[in-house]
Amino acid sequence: MSIGIMDVTLVGARGLKNADFLGKIDPYVLIQYKNQERKSRTGQGSAPVWNEKFRFKVEFPNKGKIEQQKLVLKIMDRDTFTRDDFLGQTTIYLKELFETGMEEGKAELNTQKYRVVSANQTYHGEINVGVTFTAQGETNNEQDFGGWKESTFYISSKISCNISFLVIFQDTEMTTGIMEVTLVGARDLKNTDCFGKIDPYVLVQYKNQEQKSRTVRGHGSHPVLWNEKFRFKVEFPDKGNEQPKLVLKLMDRGIFFAPDGFLGRTTIYLKEMFEIGMEDGKAGINTQKYRVVSANRTYHGEIKVGITFTTKVNQFNPKPPLSNNLNYFNLFKFKHFLFMTMFFDLQEETAD
Question: Which pTM was predicted?
């Protein structure tokens, strides 16, 4: 799990609905991310200016169900003697921003206008917001098994020592399954060809497995349709601590001897889907649009993908037998150390 900081820049709004029968509205914004909420100062009229920044702590991907990462901005009208009125809200989805930030260290949604949805589900006004996510690293969850680990043992009231020992047994549950990727299409891709149109194809990569879509010739940056499915073998959890992810590299097929050109990539993180699939037998990420990150780390176009994970077999790695020479050797060393420590401790007590 990665942690980071999300900075939200609230610039202003315009064209807000006037909910007051007398006078002007006094709008403020409740900015909500999961269980964190910030409140702006109160502005004036239907075109308030705030120019404020708010900071939120982010843990991504989140544990539990696959919920869409989103920032909700609720615009309220401050009233003196009655309850504050709801003017409308804007929702900004953050998943791709976080994924890019985790990979690149930082990602940004440039300040732009978002339409405000009023209580009757119609658009009324717009709000100007920018969002930046800066990754700060990985959370360290100490493992209680496997490898070497340092502990402190107190043998008696008179002696303490540090011991590094090898854990002899390790229980690991490994789930295998099939991940099916549905590649639907793309649009607004960057045209890297000086002459003519691009001929895009996609390299779909999961760990050391790679599959290639067909090449769509002559479509250029206009909507491209593949409608292809790809299957990958999955073993989860991974022996390492790497985040399982699906990488889609969009390429432009070169002509003659020219190398294929890189159009952009999209990264989809899979850990939460796998965890739910292990528990329920099946899990999926509905077909949706993901923004494409070009070589200069700007968004250019979007790709439409859906993913399904189906559990196949549960395998249990049995405990290694006691006849294992390495286990016997380490067990002997550990017992020998405890015996010698207790012997010297007894000698010390006798001397006293």
Answer: 0.46
